[in-house]
Design goal:
By secondary structure, the chain is of the alpha+beta class. It folds into two domains: about 5-310, Alpha/alpha barrel (Glycosyltransferase), CATH 1.50.10; about 315-545. Strands 14-15-10-7-6-5-4-3-22 form a nine-stranded antiparallel sheet. A six-stranded antiparallel sheet has the order 8-9-16-13-12-11, with helices on one face. A five-stranded antiparallel sheet has the order 17-18-19-20-21, with no helix packed on it. A hairpin with a 2-residue loop joins strand 12 (about 475) and strand 13 (about 480-485). Helix 3 (about 85-95) runs parallel beside helix 5 and helix 6 (about 140-160) packs parallel to helix 8 (about 205-220). The longest helix is centred in the N-terminal third of the chain and has 22 residues, at about 35-60. The protein is globular, with a radius of gyration of 24 Å.
Length: about 625
């Protein structure tokens, strides 16, 4: 994540003091749904209080060392009424060298509002002065824009009727408010009609829902307050429908190496724990998650969303649309559509997009993720990709000078971007089709392309791995059987991992990369529950008996009858067919499935679980609950 904006406000996990054990080091929570509403709310409040207590000093900072306080700790202490004089003094000190950009802006907004009646006049004046003297950089991505404008909107409401010279922007309070409101409404309109560009992000969900909670809590305009609440429901409903026991899987528009291999290791897991209670939180409550806690009790998760996350009747398919990050060059479309498929079962889930260019650096196109009772430290996933890296692709999505793009990216928190053995990113030469729990990924890489190879990730946690004479590779992950069929010759390499976005050294965490150095290539993966077969040998026999033909010339093509009895024909550059019928992507809705449904352009989401129904209608800015 691009957090240099925070100007020293980055959160680091400190030693845990004696006392109550935080949930991120305790035993995993039960995945069983809590059906009693009052009990569910009480458990939610206890989790919120756990975060506040930890942030205020219970395990995060020493009360007698105010120099360690950051704005997250100060926010928690304000809510707790703890050491308010010390908080005021620390705010004054921090505002002498304020940060710039959205990652500084929204924490500062939180302290300004929470401290209105609790911090000293001098501390509040210091915050206000910072918004006059320090230019705020807007950033260049969807989450940056959302944080920037939601922060500016709330500060302009907090300080209304003030002249242009009192703002860094050189605009009056009214002008700042109008500009911010215009963008916020535009972003909500785009999201509810054609979807997000940063869809299903592993970490950036926090950068959306935290400022949206601020808006829902503090906006003076009732309609804006309602919109904030509705967008929270919208984003949390999608999180609920795309998680497996609270763990977000692929596909993802924005991610990192850590949360791609260890699917649980993402800020999304913190929000699953907080809202659904069905997975452990990440260490330190994901740092930025601390900013949600001071106002978390203002939000009440609708029961229908909670049920989707924790109480599913059986297997289901969700087919949704999103959009590609905006193209500035080399495209006839500004933001082409993204078509997402997710198939979720009790033991595993399969998710994908159609491939191609999505986000140039941090996208994750497809995977099979299996369930783990305790997902911490488990690399419970399988996938392949073309490790593409090119200046032209970066130029399509970024507007700065092209010369430093490839090397510059590796020094801005994405060190693996220029590595041939990387496991993250999209490629214009990858096309993917998924039908239930079958994935076919085809690759047709032009000669001369950097990194002419396919990387298949094989986890350290796979067991009973065997390379069959038929060409299939078999394994078991948790309660799932997996069959992986490379379409060209390959060899094995050790997987080496960047410990963080800024790490230069790589470590051996276990796992291997199946490397296939052929330009025309492909991967087939078929998953199944171990419950369906007597043993792995029976699964192998079923897979090797499936009718399968493929070719690599002149273009990669596969014809396969899947384990579910469906005949797939998929050729690179052509529309796939299932049982002889072409897949018509033009008819895909914004959301389509048993739980979430919305029309493209509709500005309305219907959330359903059993007889429960909640409708978020941005045309009328209304929420309607029904028991059908």
């Amino acid at each position: 994540m691009k957090r240099a904006f925070a100007s020293g406000l980055l959160f680091t996990v400190a030693a845990i003091s004696a006392g109550a054990q935080p949930s991120f080091v305790g035993p995993p929570p039960s995945a069983a749904p809590v059906l009693d509403a009052s009990q569910r709310r009480a458990q939610y409040v206890r989790r919120v209080d756990e975060v506040l207590d930890w942030a205020a000093g219970g395990g995060n900072a020493k009360t007698d060392d105010p120099a360690k306080l950051d704005l997250a700790m100060i926010s928690a202490r304000i809510v707790r009424g703890q050491d308010l004089p010390g908080c005021s003094q620390r705010v004054i000190e921090m505002m002498r060298e304020p940060g710039t950009g959205p990652f500084w802006m929204f924490p500062a907004v939180g302290v300004a509002y929470l401290g209105r009646d609790r911090l000293t006049p001098e501390a509040l004046a210091a915050i206000r002065t910072a918004w006059r003297t320090t230019r705020q950089v807007r950033g260049d991505t969807e989450n940056h824009f959302v944080m920037y404008y939601l922060s500016l909107y709330l500060m302009a409401e907090l300080y209304p009727n003030e002249p242009a010279e009192t703002w860094y922007s050189g605009r009056s309070s009214a002008e700042n408010l109008a500009e911010a409101r215009s963008f916020i409404l535009h972003w909500m309109d785009v999201t509810t009609t054609v979807g997000q560009a940063e869809f299903n992000p592993t970490h950036y969900i926090g950068e959306y829902v935290i400022p949206l909670l601020f808006l829902a809590s503090w906006a003076k305009d009732p309609a804006m307050k309602q919109r904030g609440r509705m967008m929270l429901d919208w984003l949390f409903a999608e999180l609920a429908a795309t998680t497996l026991n609270g763990v977000l899987r692929g596909p993802n528009s924005r991610s990192d190496e850590g949360s791609i291999i260890e699917r649980w290791q993402a800020m999304a897991s913190y929000f699953s724990w907080l809202l659904f209670g069905n997975t452990p939180p990440t260490a330190g409550y994901s740092g930025w998650g601390l900013y949600f806690a001071p106002l978390a009790k203002n939000y009440e998760l609708p029961e229908v969303i909670y049920r989707i996350a924790t109480d599913r009747a059986g297997d289901f398919v969700q087919r949704d649309r999103a959009r590609v990050r905006r193209f500035w060059r080399y495209s006839d479309e500004t933001s082409p559509p993204v078509h997402k498929t997710n198939y979720l079962r009790k033991d595993y889930a399969v998710g994908s997009t159609r491939g191609g260019r999505i986000d140039p650096i941090q996208s994750h196109v497809w995977d099979v993720t299996w369930a783990e009772a305790d997902p911490r430290g488990k690399h419970n996933t399988l996938f392949s990709l073309h490790p593409h890296a090119a200046g032209e692709v970066l130029q399509a999505s970024f507007t700065f000078y092209p010369e430093p793009m490839i090397k510059g990216v590796t020094f801005e928190g994405k060190p693996s971007y220029d590595s041939p053995d990387k496991i993250m990113g999209s490629s214009p030469y990858e096309q993917v089709f998924q039908d239930l729990d079958t994935v076919i990924a085809l690759y047709d890489i032009p000669a001369g392309t950097r990194f002419p190879r396919i990387n298949g990730f094989f986890s350290k946690d796979l067991v009973e791995v065997s390379e069959d004479p038929s060409g299939w590779i078999f394994a078991r992950g948790g309660g799932a059987y997996l069959a992986y069929r490379p379409l060209a010759a390959y060899h094995w390499e050790k997987y080496l991992h960047h410990a963080s976005g800024w790490a230069r050294e790589r470590s051996d965490l276990g796992g291997r990369i199946l490397t296939s150095p052929h330009l025309k290539n492909g991967t087939i993966v078929q998953a199944a529950s171990a419950r369906e077969f007597k043993d792995l040998a029976a699964f192998k026999a079923a897979i090797t008996a499936l009718p399968l033909t493929f070719q690599l010339e002149p273009a990669p093509a596969v014809t396969l009858t899947t384990l579910r009895g469906r005949k797939i024909a998929f050729t690179y550059g052509q529309i796939p067919t299932v049982d002889g019928r072409e897949v018509d992507y033009t008819k895909w809705k914004l959301f389509a499935g048993p739980y979430l449904n919305a029309e493209v352009g509709g500005r309305k989401l219907t959330i359903t679980h059993g007889r429960l129904e909640r409708v978020l209608d941005f045309n009328t800015v209304t929420i309607t609950d029904r028991v059908r």
